[in-house]
């Protein structure tokens, strides 16, 4: 296939942002003949973890896809130490990395004509326009949350006040309203600079040449259509909206190879009956209080189900504490120091506790895995759906509460954890949720539904599927722009 277009993709810090960006890059290269350069933005605390991540190792043999790491950035001195907003930290890190990205692009012999950024990369858009590149935003999430972001500039201050003060739902044309219980942190007090920054970012996003979303039409038929067709957006948004998902990391079943040492998780899973193990993980950054971890451990025991549980050291009052550093708060302590006394030895025949990090995509693919207690990060949700695994939805931060509502109330593939007064999910409730997914009739129905969505997701990505076609259209637009861009680059060089 001849190379048509060179696209630069920007991945903001965090594996949840990197994985879908890399998957998009891989598809543009393998299915649409693009040359792709991915700029991976790193921080001083996540740079070594990021460079070693398996998703990047998978790209090393791929022709036409280059990875460039930006120099690690530390923005901690620019943040309020008492309230270090995750969104602001990512945004500032991106901003500091732009001069390096620009200099790299300018030094390329065959410079990219397209820039694709994720939600946090919007500050790079002026640079791209300055270099006469066409601009795309990739929402690595569902259509509902993408719609909320796109509509921000059209939501009045009064509507935000009624939402924050009177807990009225936030109305988004053509979409499910956002209930106050599910709202984003920034909408709880929508008066400060962080909220204003988000609205301004949304304005910038609407001015791009196209918007991509990591979802597919059959998963969210009304919402995707509402975003594609809506008159209000149509008047302001410059480019079309393309649902191109589900883009998730593809993995092969784990098999022990000659000479390799056994992986204890998979050798244990291999010995368990089909769909009998519940997997528990709260994403790349999720943490819990000590009280909550103790309740969860007791709940697991009460459920009497086999399990694989990824645990992190407890952190009080910051659910995303480990986002930039998976070892946060760990100070060398062992899991026995913060789990209930005797838990690990009592459960050693029925479960595995994995400190910090586990190969999630591979675990979800394993035939023994039959349920997933998840914080509802969108990558985790898609990985679960594409492996036909029903979920216990336990959202922690960002848009995860909206995702939990969608999974449990619209799609019927999850049951949702209820947080009791005092902010804790109690052990009896945890045991009940796990049994509803793993044992009860309700779980069987959820399994049927999730299998249907798996099939529809795979169909969307296959030749002539809706997401495949969307990406073809986007690729065609890029090709047309490429012709103009090459003339401009030639003129610049002359
Ligand atoms: N992940 C993993 N092992 C872990 C925790 C997370 O491989 O122990 C991966 C997971 O498979 C997913 C990503 O990290 O691809 C997390 O992304 P998600 O959107 O679910 O959540 P985030 O971390 O962004 O909150």
From TrEMBL:
SUPFAM superfamilies: UDP-Glycosyltransferase/glycogen phosphorylase (SSF53756)
Pfam families: UDPGT (PF00201)
CDD domains to which the protein is assigned, alphabetical: GT1_Gtf-like (cd03784)
InterPro entries cross-referenced by the UniProt entry: UDP_glucos_trans, UDP_glycos_trans_CS
EC number in record: 2.4.1.-
UniProt key word Ribonucleoprotein: no
Glycosyltransferase recorded as keyword: yes
GO molecular function (one): coniferyl-alcohol glucosyltransferase activity
Key words of the record: Glycosyltransferase, Transferase
Family: Belongs to the UDP-glycosyltransferase family.
Name of the protein: Glycosyltransferase
Organism annotation: Pisum sativum (Garden pea)
